[in-house]
């Protein structure tokens, strides 16, 4: 696929009627940064311990490696990032995971590099990673759009109930948008992560649907999720142009069976049943670095 040359290193030029080249007038200054204009970088890293290499390490080296491992994940001091959480991962896919969020992708990546460069680095095998950005979904309605949805659901525009619901939504809207681009991690011990796409198949092409239809389907999907309020929290990050899948979904729950219930329930919504494709699922149980080492027998 052809791409445009966006290099700022030198101006383009044009020739006048006599063939003399002249530089174009410089374009308006554009701020250049590796940080997004809004939101944070989000990375999920999954690792496995190499048991043969661990067994070959002297006991003193393993103890020192464990201390360095914990220090690399302590998220304190000058290199601290906005959010960091570690999980024990059951099954063969990984032994543990690190989820990180920060405006700077290099500060996030530095945590991974500290782990790999530390004394236990030779005994760590990265098994999967996924990167994305936090965003405010285009399907999150503003107060006016929320009111139109209420009318579609049977509310009367001039009723006191309608006005109260719209006013309450308007009061929450700024907080909801901020929570999506600068999210907190909920204090729940059960988690899972999976990537997903929207289909582009003939007859099931999400991106050929008009916005009004996509918005309707996502509103239905959102209502299913709301039934799990107080039990499950969700973070959706966008990876279009950044990773192999288009979105990443992270779920936290107060009980592990709630993860099963919400994923099962929401797969019956048309947005998922007809248009969604899912990647591998990774289960996690929130744990400190020390708990990970103990659990994994390091």
Strand order of the largest sheet: 3-5-4-13-7-11-10-6
CA-based gyration radius: 24 Å
User: What is the 3D shape?
Assistant: elongated
Largest sheet, described in full?
8 strands, antiparallel, barrel
- Overall structural class, as computed from helix and strand content, comes to alpha+beta
How many H/I helices?
A: 9
Q: Tell me the helix content.
A: 25-40%
CATH class categorisation of one domain: Alpha Beta
Written as H for each helix and E for each strand, in order along the chain, the element string is EEEHHEEHEHHEEEHEEHHEEH
Mean pLDDT: 89
Task: Identify the CATH architecture of one domain.
Answer: 2-Layer Sandwich
> What is the fourth-level CATH superfamily of one domain?
Apc35880, domain 1
Tell me the β content. Answer: 15-25%
Low-confidence stretches: 1-18
Using DSSP, what is the number of strands?
13
CATH topology of one domain: Alpha-Beta Plaits
Q: Distance between the terminal alpha carbons, to the nearest Å?
A: 47 Å
Structure description:
Helix 4 (143-152) packs across helix 5. Strand 4 and strand 5 (96-102) form a beta hairpin. The chain is an alpha+beta fold and 298 residues long. The protein has a domain at 41-134 and 286-295: Alpha-Beta Plaits. The model is unreliable at 1-18 (pLDDT under 50). The strands form 3 sheets. An 8-stranded antiparallel β-barrel has the order 3-5-4-13-7-11-10-6. Strands 1-2 form a two-stranded antiparallel sheet. It has helices at 51-56, 59-72, 105-117, 143-152, 160-181, 211-226, 256-266, 270-273, 289-295; strands spanning 13-15, 21-23, 41-49, 83-88, 96-102, 124-134, 190-198, 200-201, 204-205, 232-238, 247-253, 276-278, 282-286. 35% of the residues lie in helices and 25% in strands. The longest helix has 22 residues, at 160-181.
């Amino acid at each position: 696929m052809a791409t445009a040359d966006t290099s700022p290193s030198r101006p383009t030029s044009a020739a006048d009627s006599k063939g003399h080249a002249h530089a174009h007038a410089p374009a308006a200054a554009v701020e250049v940064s590796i940080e997004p204009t809004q939101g944070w970088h989000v990375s999920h890293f999954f690792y496995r311990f190499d048991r043969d290499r661990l067994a070959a390490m002297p006991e003193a080296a393993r103890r020192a490696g464990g201390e360095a491992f914990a220090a690399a994940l302590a998220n304190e001091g000058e290199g601290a990032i906005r959010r960091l959480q570690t999980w024990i991962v059951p099954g063969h896919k990984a032994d543990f995971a690190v989820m990180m969020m920060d405006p700077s992708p290099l500060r996030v990546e530095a945590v991974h590099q500290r782990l790999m460069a530390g004394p236990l680095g030779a005994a760590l095998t990265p098994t999967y990673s996924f990167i994305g950005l936090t965003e405010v979904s285009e399907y999150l309605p503003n107060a006016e759009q929320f009111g139109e949805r209420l009318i579609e659901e049977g509310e009367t525009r001039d009723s006191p109930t309608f006005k109260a619901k719209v006013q309450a939504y308007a009061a929450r809207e700024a907080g909801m948008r901020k929570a999506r681009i600068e999210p907190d991690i909920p204090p729940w011990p059960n988690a899972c992560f999976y990537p997903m796409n929207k289909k582009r198949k003939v007859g099931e092409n999400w991106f050929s649907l008009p916005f009004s239809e996509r918005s309707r389907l996502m509103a239905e999907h959102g209502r299913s999720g709301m039934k799990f309020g107080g039990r499950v929290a969700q973070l959706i990050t966008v990876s279009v142009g950044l990773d192999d899948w288009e979105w990443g979904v992270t779920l936290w729950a107060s009980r592990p069976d709630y993860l099963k219930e919400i994923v099962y329930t929401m797969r019956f919504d048309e947005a998922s049943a007809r248009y969604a494709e899912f990647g591998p699922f990774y289960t996690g149980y929130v744990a400190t670095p020390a708990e990970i080492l103990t659990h994994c027998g390091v």
